[in-house]
Write a structure and sequence with these properties.
Structural class: mainly beta
Radius of gyration: 34 Å
CATH topology of the largest domain: Collagenase (Catalytic Domain)
Distance between the termini: 98 Å
Number of domains: 4
Number of strands: 32
Length: 705
Amino acid sequence: MTFSLSPCTLTLLLSLLSTSFIAQTHTHDGVTPCGLNHAEEMLFMRRPETRDAAMEATRALELETQQGATAAQREDVLIIPIVFHVIHFNGPENISSAQVQDAVDVLNTNFRALNANIDEVIPEFEDIVADIEIEFRLAQRDPNGNCHPGINRIVSELTYVGDSEMKELIQWPRNKYLNVWVCEYAAGAAGYALYPGSVNGNQNADQDGIVLQHSYCGSIGTANLYRSRTLTHEVGHWLNLRHPWGNSNNPGLAGNCDEDDNVSDTPNTIGWTNCGNLYGETCGSLDNVQNYMDYSYCGRMFTQGQKDRMRTAALSSVAQRNQLSTAANLQATGVLGEDILCEATFDVDRRLICVGDSVKFTDQSYHSPSSWSWNFGDGTVMAGAAGDGVQELYHTYTEAGLYDVTLTVGNGTDEVAGTVTEAVYVMDAGEMDLPLSQGFEAGEFPSNQWFIEDPLNDGTWELTDDAAATGSRSMFIENWGNNVEFNDDFLRTATMDMSGMTEIHVNYKWAYVHKGTSEASETDDRLRVSVTGDCGNDWDLRRMHRGFTDLPSADPTPFPWTPSGPEEWNEYTIVLDNEEYLTEFFRVQFEFESRLGNNIFLDDINVQGFGNTDVAEAMNGLTKSWTLAPNPAAMSSVISFQTREGGMAELTLQDASGRVLSSTPQTLSAGSHDWQVDAPETPGVYLLRLTTAGGAQRTWRWVIQ
């Protein structure tokens, strides 16, 4: 066809001024198109100084293509190393390695004309079906020469954007690898690339590569067969192919007959978004509806003319494409098929367990080891080959301690080891002293008795000296400014021995306000308190404080909030008498779920067991027990107790649900006291808690008749 350089590639369209190109991509008959043209428009809007250089590079590559000199330089199959950067936020976009490999397999099948449906190409185009003689292989070494599976996984919210900023998270040298970014939302498109001329030179090199929505990557997992050709389409653009209707993203327009893709054997067409008529003639000749560069879902082929154009781009110095397939680069990226043995790696399903529990270990080593040897750090070694149950196995730890686990893999010639330091921490029964009274005034967190889990690694529980219910420190989560909804963060205790007890009290204080000034701005953040009697194999939710109900402890504010005094804190007590918790492996968990509200503070966690007089007395550091009598009562009861320190004491009354009904302070001297408490008007079960100036504390179940 006629040679022409379309100005669409390099001209800024004022009507498309925006901060993203989401609005410019359209869906045709359920087909999400590629976003190349809009991506290029945005590139030149951001970097207008690169437009002239890009135009010159595009013109030079076009002349090179028309002359056909470069394409004839090499007749061998070109191999191009490829690396996938999976940008995810722990969602379905974190596709499996198998799905990535499938995407590469589909890509190679299509480029080598080995697709199973190649015989479905209509007879009129059979003679020009082309084997492009280009293959893509997952990199086996990183830019530093280290072993690598060719897949990087990066946790980032930018997966929901999929724009140029996402590319800045990671990019391997474009003269060594074809970079593919997989994400949740590819800026409104199924995928997009950039033409070689647009990314020629140092200024735009950082944008070179392909962005692909995860559901269009491969034919398995989150993708499907019909969407699997998207990567083939985008690689075609990356190698300088246009759409058959020319350089636009708008198929189906009558004016497209006047546009050209600069390929001699692809008939002019208005473009197809369906496969309803494989013999359609939209511009006076038979359309190549089955071409991978069209929007039809029945792509089957490239043409010989497209082959020449792509191989010219692959062997051109424009955008450094010619450096990818050199023998030196293939050796450096490890794609020549040599037997590479890399550092062993494995997954651990749990890193915190108790004596007698089992841990699941799964080998994740790559480059096909043939033998495995596990050292679990406790004197146990297990070795074998494939089929011996050594690639995925369980190990039970019978003694407490911190264990380094080592996996050694081999390939019959060499062997390498991989070690996870401090891989498994095994707790003994009753590791925490009772009573537990934690005000966070001393020590560091996490510790060997307090554990923090931050699944998204984006900020979690931490110490602060900006606020406290008592003392000067507390734990908090800086939830203000968080933009990840449903994010959960955990603060957990070690084990406590509650065997022999008849009742457990878990008391804590928290502070929280709504982010805003009205009910309309309320957020349903949640603080959950769970317990376990089996070390954490099963956690049972015992109380959930919600933003819409009882989580707020003060008035809303439109600013990041910090409590100013004890009056801005809430308090709650959970009473447990279930036998399943009265074990030597009792633990408590505090979980905060963000719904994009304000900061949360936690302080004064107290856990007590009742039913053993010696423990109760030791718990309070007293010479005699504290008593409440009569109990049950009708009118009043008297608390008899002894304190070792004078100062302010506090008596708190709660209903059976843990809601604080009253709090009475009183200054007391050191010594013995009798404190009379009037009974509530309503009969029922209540909780009475006495706290002395020295921190001694006791809670009673008070029955009013």
